[in-house]
Amino acid sequence: MATKQEKELLINILEIYKEMPYLWNKNDPNYKNKTMRSTYLKEVKKVNASKHTGAGSQDIYVPSLWYFDNLSFLESTTESCRPLLDTMEKDHNEVSQNLLSKCHLLIILNLK
Description:
Elements: H1 4-18, H2 35-52, H3 82-111
């Protein structure tokens, strides 16, 4: 377990790190460091996955990184797949509903 002094030091380092986007922003032309960003994003993925399972609030994954919140600035560099999945699901539902309506109409016309 990190001491209070070690935690304060790491928080200061993370603040400096935040000011150097070429270390964490994959869109920066001088981007270099994938390790810390990857670790953070894995934790974010675990949190989000636990929220989507229908688990109660007490079952939501709590990140194991004590400095997780200090890396939250990295989230602005990620792209979520969820909007695309929502759009695909909406399109699928619309196509299914349209097909169902046409089938229903054909059934009614054939019964007459």
